[in-house]
Every structure is written in C-alpha cells, then in structure tokens.
C-alpha cells in the first residue's frame, strides 16, 4: 500500500504537469504567433479595431519616419516618392492589398492590442482616437531607395538583404514597386499583381543557386568527394533525357563543355552535368534530406513575417527529374528570402537565423513593448561543410560565374543561378551571396525575372548592393 | 475529537466558502446574460442553477459522504458549461441543467455502488461483457457523425456507448490490477481500444489507452513495463498514421492549419483566432463573435471560453481540473484498499487526460481529436459519464470515512475498556 501511495502521488504529479503544460504552451503560442492569427483572413478583429484606434508610426532602422497617421486614423506616408515606393511592399497598406505587410502583420502593436488596462482607462478620458504603438523596423530605407534606382526598369523580381549574424532584414524588396498614395485597388487581376511581395511570396525554381544545397549534400554523403573528378561533355543523359550545361543546345548541335572538373570548379563554373551526376549518385532521398534540413518542405512560422513554404518535389521522381533537381530545376520551388537565408547560413558557419523585421515596438508614452532578439532557425550543416562551401562561393566570385559581383578590397562570396522557366524567353537571373567580413556580415539575394544569365544580370546588381553596404553600413562594435 | 475530524471540519468550512463563490459566479453570469439579452429564461436560471447546485452539494455531502470540495469544483465547471452553452444557444443552456440532474443521479448511483458492493467479481464480469457488447454495437447498428461511427440510437436519443464504457473500464481495470491480474486487464483494455479504433473514435481510444497506461504504472511501479506499453502505443499510432488518410490529414492540419485556412484547417484556425482575439481578459461574456466555430458547443467550447473570458480565466479553469486531480489523488492515497486507490486515481486520470486531449487539440499543442470537455461540453452521455467518474472517487471517499468512523468507534471502545 505504501508503494501504491507513492505511485499515486507520481501519477498525480504527471497529470497535473500535463494540464499545466497546456497553460504554458498557450502562453508561448499566443506570444509567438499572434501576428499570424490576427492576420488570418477569417479574422476581422483588426478591421474592427481600426475604427477606434489610429495606427502608430513606422520607422526604419535609422529612425527615418516611413509612415504615420492623421487624426482621422488614415495612414500618411512620407513625402519622398522614391523612398515610399522602395518600402511599399514591406510596409504593406491599410486596405489589405499586400498580404502580411508590416501594417497588418504588426497590427498587434500598431493598432494597440498591447494596450494595458491603464491605457484603456486613460484613453476613455482623452479626446480623439488613441494612437497605437510605434514600430521600428530593421529595414534600412536608404539602402532600399538606393537599390530601387538601379534595379532594371520594367523587370519583375526581388532583392533581399539580411544580417546573417542576427537575421535582421535590411531590405525586403519586390519589383515592380508601387506608390501607396496612387495605387489602383480596383484594377484587373494583372494590375493587382503589383501587390504580390516577390521577396517572400514568389515561389520559383532557384536554378543553380540550389547547387549550394546539392554541394552540401554531396560533401556530407558522397565518399571520396575530396578527390572527386568529373569530365563535362556539355551535357549528361538520364533516362534518355539530357541535362545540358549553359551554352549547350542539342537541337542545334552546339556543345559547350566544361572539361575536367573537381567539385570546386564544377561549383564555381556552375556545371549542370556535374551536379546532375552528383544528385544521381547520392540518390533522391539523400538530397531531399539535406534540402529539408535547409528548410525545404518545412512550414515556416516566423514571428515577424510570413514566408511561403519552399518545396522539394516528392512526386514523379524519375532519374531525369532527380538529376535535374541536382542542378536546381525540376519542380523545386523557393522564395528569394529563403535562398538568401541559405547563403546567410553558409556565411554564418552553418547556422541559419530566423529573419527578423521588428527592431523595437514603443508605446506612445515611450515604454518598450518588444525588442528584437535574434533567434536561430536551425543549424543546417556542420561548420566544416560551411567552411568548404564558403571557399567555393569565394572562388565563384573570384574566377567563376560570379565575377561581376566582386567588390575590390572585400571578401565577396556568392553563387549565380539562371533558372529556366516554361513559356519564358529568358532565364530568371539569380544571385545569392554575402560579404565574408565581421564588419559587414550581410547576405544578399537578387532575382530578376525573365532577364538572362545570373552572372550577367543579377551579379552586377548585387555588386552595387555590396558596394553600398561596405561604404555605408559598417557595423558598430 | 480526533485530529482527522478537526482537519475535515476545516476543509469543509473552506469548501463551503468555495461553494458560495461558485454559486455567486453562476448567479452573476446569468444575470449578465439577462441584462444583455433580456430573456426571462436566463433570469430563472440565475436563481435556479446556483440554488440547485448548492442543495445538491449539501445533500451529497450530508447523506452520501461525498467530499464537498470536489463537489464544489465540479459544480463550478458545470455552471460554466451551462453559462457558455446558454450564451451560444439558449435552448442548449436550458437542456444542460437536465443533464446535470441526470449526472448527479449517476454520481449518487456510483457512490452507493462503491460504498456498498463487497463482492466485486460478479459485477466485474458483467461489466466487462457489457462494455465489449456496447462498443461493438455502433459497428453493427451505428450512426456516423463526423467520420466516426461511435453513436447508437435508442428510442430517438442518440448516445455514445464509449462514454458509459469509460466508467466500466476504470472499474474493471482497477479491480483486475489490484488483484494482480495484469495480463487479463491488458487484454481487456486492448480489446476495448481496438473496438474504438474500428469505430474511428480516435479520441476515446487515446483516453482509454493513456488511462490504462497510467493505471499500470500506479499498480506495478515498473517504468520498464510502462515504457513498453508506451512503445506499443506509439507503434500502433504509427501504423494508424500510415494506413488511414484521415489521420494523416489531421496531423497535417496540426502542423500547419494555415495551408487550408478555409477548408480542413478552418476549425483549428478559428480556435486560434478565438484564443488570440480574447487576449488576457477576454472580450466579455456575450461580446465575442466566435460562436459560429464548428462544434462550438462540444469539442470547441474551450475556444469560446478563451475568447469571451480571456486567457487568465481559461488558465483558472485548467487549474480547477488540476485541483480535481489533486483532490482525487489525496482521496486515493487515503483509501483503505488497493482496488479503491486504483479506482480514485483512475477516474481522475480519465478526466484529466480527456481535458488535456481536447484543450491541447484546441490550442494546437497536439493534433485535434474529437472528445468533449468534461462537465462543460453539451451532451447528456458525456455529462453523465464524467459525473459517474467523480462518483467513483466520491464513493472511495465515502468508504474512507466509513472505515475511519469504524476505527474511531473501535478506538473509543478500546479506550473505554482501558479505563474501566
């Protein structure tokens, strides 16, 4: 009986702990995911709130006022049109054109959901609409404005800049941009496409930038990868279908071969055949495993932003499709934000940080409601593999396909990509890279749709971004 | 007067205070609903519900040896259920007191049974047979609701046999384990769980499984055996996961309900919205707009509570369940026989796991499985079975007191004998 009593006590402790876990989890869930829940399209609480609270101000990382509100509760934007356009997507709008922009995703603060009971009571005795909390973003609006001056006119695409040590988002830009003051809400579907935030909502094949992941998988899984050799003949065949290297066109008989390669030169020259071969050698499951470690097929539930989930295909996996995946094509889908995180993980010794957007939320009385704290998304590879990849990406910018991104005097690393799209004349030009320096721990992703080769079109844009960062954004110690 | 009796008196005084507070809560809430809606029925309930509950508690305490503290806690949850159900739909709110009365009758029956029955084997055999027959019935002549074939119709009333079998299961397994008939009890429990799985009533299967597992631990104290049981359960769950698409979709919706916000993930998303919109202090009784959530009156009633009463109050409700567990464990530890110890902890275990499974599902801690929230959700069978489980605990408590009184009488006689 004595033993029974002891066991009963233990069982009761276990059951109580189980029930208390409910409270703890509920609390954590609400504090982490409330933005997502408030913004669910089935939730009308923000719309109701807008009738009684005017939104707080939005500032960039340097304290530049990006948006405010007037006495009637309507949003006002800052005067410089170029700057207004440059941050239009990340800010979002009050009418829900852009999904999950700051204006709606940070409504928790902006529309005063964090008001304390005392706030609510004082507001009762104050004339006019109470104003929600101010939000300071990690966004550098000057950088964004600068980027918008040279991003190819008329092209669609995205630019993302992250601090790879903290995950702070300096730029989350989508092109074509729009002016929140004049944009047409009642336009046709194609006119409304301007509201799509390509940086986090555009799901496309990443092209050769995916070779970072294929290479990571090969370094982990392929025996003797250090001494691996490959002779590129301009194409390789799997299942009777050809994966071709850039420049090769089998229908015209034109062959452009890379010749004898190691893993490093295959990477820096972006040889499709070599990476197709690597993918076939290690098999679909190994490559998928690594891709999933990097965040493919995961449900991103970040606290500050909504990023569409990247997809590693699981259906119709013929040898050709597997080989094609190794080179970054097939049915792979990802966003510029996620690929920027991939480059950032290489730069940050294999640790992928969660992208953050909120630097600080401050009440109208000046008390801090929330402050950014860097969070690790995952450790996606070992330090050793990250170091090897860093070297490969450095070589790519020094002597490979990414030379156009090089900035003299700085250690720029990167990978180009040219993603083939059905029904599109040119390839999507991709560049992901980073500055491998303590003072400038930034990762960049540039995507220009329907433009051509990544080395020719995206890399020069990235170069200008890198140059600006090294000149203006030295990190304070 | 002995120390034990003094202690009892102190607890009773505390419990009476709690009982008054619970009555006041019911009165104020129904008055609030009356002010908001102007319906006279809520005015009647404002007086009737606290009064009936108060009287029921006193009768249970005085004539049936029930623990007043436990009764008060249960009364609180029942009043909350009636209030929220009335808020969702007044017709539901009017029906719930009837179920409360039926539940109380069930509780009394269980108290009497546990207190009086001295020769269990006959009853155990009957209950074992009956539980298997009852669980097989819906498979033969059941009605399908929400994908589970767990209901049968008797005389125009649909009822869920698994709710009644819960009580039998706790009784039978407690008896067998206390008699060290482990294999037999595991075989019996496994058969029940299998029948539930065949009905696709995963929620109930989960409850049965965990309750039996906890009882096995309590009985044997063997971590190895418990972990082996856990491993078997995980293996069964995995097989179920790979075999049945509807389990896979439940798990997928648990991982990310946002991928199908208006489809399969709708209920989960709405529950989360209810929770977040409610905030710490709630939108206020009658001020929320989440009553259209599917199954708001059954599985999802906790979402409405979080929405209108707020997270602080919702945490309080959970603490009430914790207190029921604690009180049940205290009674179990005081029990006079192994069987009664098993019975008391098994009953509160069943209720606690049920609470965990449904609230955990609503707040997205675990995949959602449809079970009711004990004492609060609408529905007669659910209420009766939860009250019966509490009745088992109360029966054990009544027996504890009987034995204590006998002992004291003996001691008094001894004392007198020593004096003379």
Layout of helices and strands:
The complex is a heterodimer of chains A (477) and B (420).
Chain A: H1 2-38, H2 45-50, E1 58-59, E2 65-69, E3 75-77, H3 81-86, H4 88-91, H5 102-105, H6 107-110, H7 117-124, E4 134-137, H8 141-150, E5 157-163, E6 169-175, H9 189-192, H10 198-201, H11 211-221, E7 230-232, E8 235-238, E9 241-244, E10 259-261, H12 263-268, H13 272-282, H14 284-293, H15 319-326, H16 336-347, E11 351-353, E12 358-362, E13 368-371, E14 376-379, H17 383-398, E15 412-419, E16 428-435, E17 442-448, H18 454-472
Parallel strand pairs in A: 1-4
Antiparallel strand pairs in A: 1-2, 2-3, 4-12, 5-6, 5-17, 7-10, 8-9, 11-14, 12-13, 15-16, 16-17
Helix pairs in contact in A: 8-18, 11-13, 11-14, 13-15
Chain B: H1 3-37, H2 40-64, H3 68-88, H4 90-116, H5 121-141, E1 143-145, E2 148-154, E3 157-159, H6 161-178, H7 182-198, H8 202-220, H9 223-243, H10 245-255, H11 266-278, H12 301-334, H13 338-362, H14 380-419
Antiparallel strand pairs in B: 1-2, 2-3
Helix pairs in contact in B: 1-2, 1-3, 2-3, 2-4, 3-4, 3-12, 4-14, 5-6, 5-7, 6-7, 6-8, 6-13, 6-14, 7-8, 8-9, 8-13, 9-10, 11-12, 12-13, 12-14, 13-14
Q: Output mean pLDDT of chain A.
A: 91
| Total of domains of chain B | 1
- Give the overall pLDDT of chain B as a whole number: 88
Largest sheet of chain A: 6 strands, mixed
Specify the structural class of chain B.
Answer: mainly alpha
Nearest-angstrom radius of gyration of chain A? 25 Å
